[in-house]
Amino acid sequence: MLFSRTIKNTLVGFSLLVSAFSFAQKEEFKTLPIGERVPMIQHQMQNLDGNMMQLESASGDNGLLVVFSCNTCPFVVGSDSFEGWEKQYNDLNKFAVDHGFKMILINSNEAKRDQDDSPEAMKNRAKEKGYTMPYLIDKNSELADAFGARTTPHIFLLNKNMELIYAGAIDNKADGKRSSDENYLKNAIEAASSGKEIQTNSTPPRGCSIKRVKK
């Protein structure tokens, strides 16, 4: 009886420890609040052509669309049950540019930098899919940490003052129980470019977790 009680107490303690750790992890990468000026706007990141870029100089007249992405996540590249958001990237880039925004992709999967998310693999992916926007390497997931980016993809739309005006998912196509299609990102871009209020400025990001290196 005493042994059983000891085991039970140990399991309870372990469960609480796991819960506390999970909570700490979630708090550590808390997504930036809407309206806040984003950090690291002059942080240098390498593009696939070898040139360095930063958020501030990459922005269009109305702002910048930042998409945290990768080469392998089914939510990005697609699967048998979901077409993947990557298929929309070039269309989104054109849509953004037409509304005064520019778009960049960020790869923060540092734990896979020697594997599927290596610079060479990124080059191959960009060429294969005909990316029309820069695809940048976020070394050590520094920008992802600063933004509180959680998933691939995770969307951050910034205005011309580098303030966050939309964050979350591209649309609701991954929601199997949706009653109608809703493109959160395009709606936000259209509203912002017209000087209107964004009706839905935050949605839960959907995708695979960003593969950070444990520190």
Task: Describe the protein.
This protein starts with a helix and ends in a 6-residue tail after the last strand. The strands form two sheets. The chain has a seven-stranded mixed beta sheet with strand order 2-1-5-4-3-7-8. A two-stranded antiparallel sheet has the order 6-9. It has two domains: 1-30; 33-209, Glutaredoxin (3-Layer(aba) Sandwich), CATH 3.40.30. Strand 7 (154-159) and strand 8 (164-168) form a beta hairpin. The chain is built from seven helices and nine strands, in the order αββαβααβαβαβββαβ. By secondary structure, it is of the alpha+beta class. 33% of the residues lie in helices and 17% in strands. It has helices at 2-28, 55-58, 74-77, 89-98, 119-129, 142-147, 184-193, and strands spanning 45-47, 52-53, 63-69, 101-107, 135-137, 151-152, 154-159, 164-168, 208-209. Residues 1-27 have low confidence and may be disordered.
Distance between the termini: 41 Å
Q: What percent of the residues sit in helical stretches (DSSP H or I)?
A: 25-40%
Q: Write the element-wise H/E pattern from the N-terminal end onward.
A: HEEHEHHEHEHEEEHE
Q: Tell me the radius of gyration.
A: 19 Å
Percentage of residues in strands: 15-25%
Largest sheet: 7 strands, mixed
The CATH homologous superfamily name of the largest domain equals Glutaredoxin
Helix/strand-derived class? alpha+beta
Number of domains: 2
Topology-level CATH name of the largest domain: Glutaredoxin
Mean pLDDT: 89
Number of helices: 7
| Total beta-strand segments | 9
Under the CATH scheme, the architecture of the largest domain is 3-Layer(aba) Sandwich
Specify the CATH class of the largest domain: Alpha Beta
